[in-house]
Amino acid sequence: MTKEENVELQEKERHDHEEQQEGRGQGEEEEAVTEEEEEEDEDEYELEDEKEDDDKLDVDDDEEEQEDKERQERQEKEATTDSDIKAQTERQALPVSGYQSPVQEPRHSPMVHPAAQAPLPKDYSFTFFDPNDPACLEILMDPQTTIPELFAIVRHWVPQVQHKIDIIGNEILKRGCHVNDRDGLTDMTLLHYSCKAGAHGVGDPAAALRLSSQLISLGADVGLRSRWTNMNALHYAAYFDVPELIRVLLKASKPRVLNSTCGDFSYGTALHIAASNLCLGAVKCLLEHGADPSVRNDQGLVPGDVVPEPMDMSLDKAEAAMVAKELKQLLLDAVPLSCNLPRATLPNYDNIPGNLMLSSLGLKLGERVQLDDTKVRWRGGRSLVLMGRRAELSVG
């Protein structure tokens, strides 16, 4: 081998060695790059895992927050429901009079309130006011509800309203109503409405008695009349057969209203009104308090004459016929006896001597006589001694 070939071989080997070194360096670089990429990938995976974990934690936190929120809302709802139930139970358990509303000073003079419609709750299914309903009760206690609106509520002739007449009446008074104020539609006062609310069945005599007693104690005028019906409070109590109220009214103003007449009933008295409506309790109460059963109305009829005739009633009104029969007899027995004989002219004995009068009786002066177990002696023709008392007689 020549020297040149040996040099070429060495250069070739060196070149190969360099290539190997370069290849090994590239491999190491590639491995390093690969390791770096793997590490980066691992870091990315770890970041993704951490992110997923964070997201999961966030989701868990959100879910927990949502659950807490829902739990809190549910608890609040349950608490609200419990409070509503409790409030409703209290409304049912406590009397309506237990609720408070602002009290205003009453006016010093009465007035006539304008007519108004009764306020009703929105989307209310009934056409009448029911104080037992929470929505209606809220309206009743609302200070913004006016006196005319409360009068309109009182006009609802249903048990739900009439049984609460004392509660509604108190609400009217709390708003500054004078005890003798009138409803502009009916011209009735609170006392008139109270007597009407005592009707058995639709009304409640106990509630009506409470309000009537309160109104009278506040100075309500028992003699006031409605200009439309010409009836006073006693007439209403007699018409609706409420003897409990009749006693209270007569105690407050007996002489003035006991036999007062009413134009809408042929100018008859409260006794006429009660008799014509077969109000046995009212008739008995009026008679007990001295009502005159002999007063005649403008048709010349006494209370006993206006009682419906029992024989004219149908068979399905047998109970009413029995009441009518009892009423007629009761009023007939109450009428005082009267003598319809014409006046007679009595003889005048002023000029007849006393001895002639005695002789006409078969008596003589000085004789003792006995009248009704009482000894009487004629003395000296001048006097009689009777039970130790002296009665002077004129003797001619």
Protein described:
The protein has 396 residues and is mainly α. The protein has a domain at 105-221. The chain is 51% helix and 6% strand. It has 13 helices and six strands. The strands form two sheets. A four-stranded antiparallel beta sheet has the order 3-4-5-6, with no helix packed on it. Strands 1-2 form a two-stranded parallel sheet. A hairpin with a 3-residue loop joins strand 4 and strand 5. Residues 85-98 and 378-396 have low confidence and may be disordered.
Which descriptors apply to this entry?
four-stranded antiparallel beta sheet, 396 residues, two-stranded parallel ribbon, 13 helices, rod-shaped, mainly alpha, 6% strand, disordered C terminus
Q: Briefly, what is this?
A:
Keywords: ANK repeat, Repeat. The chain is mainly alpha-helical.
List the helices and strands and how they pair.
Layout: H1 3-93, E1 112-113, H2 134-141, H3 147-154, H4 159-162, H5 165-174, E2 182-183, H6 190-196, H7 205-217, H8 233-239, H9 243-257, H10 270-276, H11 280-288, H12 318-334, H13 354-360, E3 368-371, E4 374-379, E5 383-386, E6 389-392
Parallel strand pairs: 1-2
Antiparallel strand pairs: 3-4, 4-5, 5-6
Helix pairs in contact: 3-5, 5-7, 6-7, 6-8, 7-9, 8-9, 8-10, 10-11, 11-12
